From TrEMBL:
The lineage of its organism: Eukaryota, Fungi, Dikarya, Basidiomycota, Agaricomycotina. PANTHER family: DIENELACTONE HYDROLASE, PROTEIN AIM2. It comes from the Eukaryota. GO terms for molecular function: hydrolase activity. This is Dienelactone hydrolase. It comes from Dacryopinax primogenitus (strain DJM 731).
Length: 267
């Protein structure tokens, strides 16, 4: 699996809507919390964002979708406010890319490299994983919390796989995970779903087949599924252009797949 990053990881579109959750401080983090109508924590989801962080409307609106389906959802700010700036969404993937000059393209690429490289170095696994573990410890200590699922996106997708591998969550969903290795896939020990597009630069079609083969051979007793969405690119589940019918369909299908998976394995 490729371990490098590219501008595709910091591209996409902001979604419109008004999030309905609340913000609380938990274990030192700001956390967006959105609840089912029942208020029950019996089926809890830890939402691990992409590099744009917890305060994008995309992340919060998607978390609200999960809550409406009956899940109690936490979206922590594991970056402590140091997410990749949201304005880079349009810098890297403008709505009219054909109107950019060669100079603008070069400038955008330079900005991406200058911003993203240091950020990835700072927010590495040795820094982030203990923060996630601390948050999970808090959730497990709450007697009202039932089963816990982890859903991760891009950068966060790797962490949902890691949590499924060590068994610290009851189920996991990894949406177009980045920075992964084959070991991340064959090490899963909890029911795991992966959603990826046919045009994902991090998980090529060949890499997806390799991951599936490894999981079948080494983890045949662990429920898993890999859903591949035609023409979908990296980030489609949370950063797709929902004004585009095909991208909207893929985004909604992946959200429904996640809800179905957690509905089954967090019950």
């Amino acid at each position: 699996m490729p371990a490098e990053l590219s501008p595709c990881c910091v591209s996409g579109h902001l979604h419109e809507g008004t999030p309905t959750g609340v913000i609380e401080k938990i274990t030192g983090f700001d956390v967006y919390i959105t609840k089912p109508d029942s208020g029950s924590k019996a089926k809890t989801i830890l939402f691990i964002t992409d590099v744009f962080g917890w305060n994008t409307p995309n992340a919060r609106l998607l978390a609200d979708e999960y809550a409406k389906a009956g899940f109690y959802v936490y979206v922590p700010d594991f970056f402590r406010g140091d997410n990749i700036p949201h304005d880079m969404l349009q810098t890297i993937a403008p709505r009219e890319p054909h109107n950019r000059s060669a100079a603008q393209v070069a400038s955008d690429n330079t900005q991406t490299t200058a911003t993203f490289g240091p950020w990835v170095t700072k927010h590495n696994e040795a820094e982030i994983k203990p923060l996630i573990d601390e948050f999970l410890k808090y959730l497990r200590a709450d007697p009202l919390t039932g089963k816990i699922g982890a859903v991760g996106f891009c950068w966060g997708g790797k962490y949902s796989l890691l949590l499924a591998g060590e068994g610290s969550v009851d189920a996991a969903v990894a949406n177009h995970p980045s920075l992964t290795t084959q070991e991340d896939y064959v090490s899963i020990n909890k029911p795991t779903q992966i959603n990826v597009g046919t045009n994902d630069i991090f998980l090529t079609n060949e890499s997806v087949e390799q991951a599936k083969k490894g999981m079948l051979e080494q983890k045949a007793d662990i429920p898993f599924e890999i859903n591949v969405y035609q023409d979908a690119v990296h980030g489609f589940t949370v950063r797709g252009d929902i004004s585009n019918l095909k991208e909207k369909e893929n985004k909604e299908a992946s959200a429904n797949a996640t809800i179905r998976w957690f509905g089954k394995y967090l019950a």
